[in-house]
Specification:
Layout lengths: L2 H6 L29 E4 L7 E2 L1 E7 L5 E8 L7 E12 L2 E5 L2 H5 L2 E4 L2 E2 L3 H14 L6 E9 L2 E8 L2 E2 L5 E6 L6 E2 L2
Parallel strand pairs: 2-13
Antiparallel strand pairs: 1-3, 1-12, 3-4, 4-5, 5-6, 5-7, 6-9, 7-8, 9-10, 10-11, 10-12
Length: about 180
């Protein structure tokens, strides 16, 4: 599993809101909330593919959750890591806390079926080992317009983590985007 993918999930600590970019550049994350729009990372617009697809929808209890499906190995494009985090808004940021439930959430699927093998259990343990130092911490991201794309800026406390920035596009479920390398 790519360390960058796991670390992207772990980008901010408890504390004050980080300094915001120019307000005009901030993309309001409201369209993401409710599932009408999906976050597509590393989009190939001509092939309609993404390396990760994230939805932000209420669960049965009404709590807003982020379910992120991520390709973890280009050599095995059908193997997908699925994580689930309860999220909340802080101003124009989307945030979540790493807790025991989020540590237990990683699942591996192939073609929609749960994969439970020695290899996936090892990858799940690696993912949990990377998350464990952030247990109890809050992770926040800001969405900033960057030309035609949206750049997700990662924060640790008041420190920006530029090496974790990524470009995304917002697509609808009907647009036909799929997970592929």
């Amino acid at each position: 599993m790519s360390g960058k993918i796991a670390v992207m999930l772990l980008v901010a600590a408890l504390g004050d809101l980080p300094p915001a970019p120019d307000d005009a550049a901030i993309a309001d994350p409201a369209p993401l909330l409710g599932g009408a729009v999906i976050e597509c990372s590393d989009a190939d617009l001509s092939r309609k593919t993404c390396s990760a697809l994230a939805t932000f929808t209420p669960d049965a209890s009404g709590e807003l959750v982020n379910i992120n499906r991520t390709l973890i190995d280009a050599a095995a494009p059908d193997l997908v890591l699925t994580t689930r985090f309860a999220i909340h808004r802080r101003g124009q940021m989307l945030c979540f806390r790493v807790d025991d439930a989020s540590l237990a959430s990683p699942r591996f699927e192939a073609r929609g079926r749960l994969v439970d093998s020695d290899a996936t259990r090892k990858r799940q343990a690696q993912f949990q080992t990377m998350l464990r130092p952030y247990l109890g911490q809050q992770i926040c991201e800001t969405y900033v317009r960057d030309g035609g794309a949206i750049r997700v800026e990662a924060w640790v406390g008041e420190n920006r983590m530029r090496d974790l920035d990524r470009n995304v596009v917002w697509v609808t479920p009907g647009d036909g985007y799929i997970l592929r390398p």
